[in-house]
TrEMBL record:
Transmembrane segments: none annotated. GO terms for molecular function: hydrolase activity, acting on ester bonds. This is GDSL esterase/lipase At3g48460-like. The lineage of its organism: Eukaryota, Viridiplantae, Streptophyta, Embryophyta, Tracheophyta. The keyword Kinase does not apply. It comes from the Eukaryota. The gene is LOC104591597. SUPFAM superfamilies: SGNH hydrolase. Signal peptide: none annotated. Keywords: Glycoprotein, Hydrolase, Signal.
Length: 403
């Protein structure tokens, strides 16, 4: 992730962000997602597995879902220490190329079905019988060529959803399920696709980050990103995906980096950057409209929307209930109060070689990515609460009874 810090013109953001205010905020901070203490009565450690449960998961997305397709030398430039401590210290006790201190949402999903953690696609020497993770840190929804043509390249990560779809198709072909259409009569395709959950992690924040200093409008990025995500989902459904979960964008205006570089007048009801959160909210509304169309187009599939924005809002609004003492401050960073975030001295660098002693009390891990505790709390709301639409129980019932 490259960051351009400029002097921000004075603006005051109301409920709906003006283009000038939004551009001012985006010019100040490029939120490059290169890319969970649970509620007290239930936790993600409880299994969802039944006799007819999911036996494999295919995951897609950015750094919030990536379990190792990037590492220090290939990931976003301002988070180039992901292969070094203190990344991974909470659960794995060593770096695993996850952009967190431990497990991600997708890891808790795998646990819920008593499945192994998903291996990254680029690690060719692993067992893929229970699924594969195609997510890449820094990935965009829009093809990278668009940003190159418009001189908007800020980073060295050219992967997009198109890249991940190409990898997925290659994976199917390598497992005897070739072609581009559904081959339901093929035993190889049945083995690859039946009993599979398709988890599409949040994707799109990196696209908006490329707006820094550009004349391209947020509306253009939204339209292109939503169309790209929709096309990607259509391809999965054409291939035979029957059970699909699509995450929306989280409250990216609550990340430490966003808070550090925004105006104090640009705040929403929970104290986060209002203009950026409004951008994520509008993106999510457009995405949900498209999902409704896909449900009508593919009535035999279950397409669930995981409401990342609302889950994040519920947690941060009542963060003490979830065990969090620091809703905005970075656990692994530098610079001290209030946000402990300096863009060129990020987690793992010589200036930030150690993390806080209690990451479970922090929401923000490195200023852009979240702690294991936050991912766990979010996963719990997706899997066991009312933050998936339809609820996950409906998806499980459909899978169990086959109708």
């Amino acid at each position: 992730m490259n960051i351009k810090t400029q002097t921000m013109a004075s603006c005051s953001c109301s409920t709906l962000p003006s283009l000038s205010c939004l551009q001012a905020t985006l010019t100040t901070v490029a939120i490059f997602l290169v890319s969970l203490v649970s509620d007290f009565s239930l936790s993600t450690s409880s299994t969802l597995t039944t006799g007819n449960g999911f036996r494999k998961i295919y995951a897609f997305g950015d750094s919030y879902t990536d379990t190792g397709n990037t590492h220090s030398s290939t990931g976003p430039t301002n988070f180039e220490y992901v292969s070094s401590p203190p990344y991974g210290t909470t659960f794995f006790h060593q770096p695993t190329n996850r952009y967190s201190d431990g497990r991600l949402v997708i890891d808790f999903v795998a646990e819920a079905f008593s499945l192994p953690y998903l291996p990254p696609y680029l690690n060719q020497n692993v067992d893929t019988s229970h699924g594969v993770n195609f997510a890449v840190a820094g990935s965009t929804a829009i093809d990278h060529d668009f940003f190159v043509i418009n001189n908007l390249t800020l980073d060295s990560t050219p992967q997009s959803l198109h890249t991940q779809l190409t990898w997925f198709n290659k994976f199917l072909e390598d497992n005897g399920c070739g072609g581009t259409t559904t081959l339901s009569s093929s035993a190889e395709c049945r083995r690859a696709l039946d009993d599979a959950l398709f988890w599409v992690g949040e994707i799109g924040v990196n696209d908006y980050a490329y707006l820094v200093g550009s004349t391209v409008s947020p509306t253009t990025i939204q339209d292109l990103a939503i169309n790209s995500i929709t096309g990607f989902l259509q391809e999965l459904l054409k291939r035979g995906a029957k059970y699909v979960v699509v995450q929306g964008l989280p409250m990216t205006g609550c990340l430490s980096m966003a808070m550090e570089f925004s105006l104090l007048t640009d705040r929403d009801d929970v104290g986060c950057v209002g203009s950026i959160n409004m951008l994520s909210s509008m993106h999510n509304s457009a995405l949900q409209d498209k999902l409704q169309g896909l449900r009508r187009q593919y009535p035999d599939a279950i397409i669930a929307y995981a409401d990342y924005f609302s889950a994040y809002h519920a947690i941060i609004k009542n963060h003490h209930k979830y065990g969090f003492q620091e809703p905005f401050k970075t656990c692994c960073g530098s610079g001290g109060d209030p946000y402990n975030f300096v863009p060129f001295a990020t987690c793992g660098s010589p200036a930030a070689s150690t993390a806080c002693s209690n990451p479970a009390q922090f929401i923000n891990w490195d200023g852009v990515h979240l702690t294991e505790a936050m991912y766990k709390a979010t996963a719990d709301l997706f899997l066991h609460r009312s933050y998936s639409h339809p609820p996950f129980s409906v998806l499980m019932s459909r899978r169990t009874h086959g109708n």
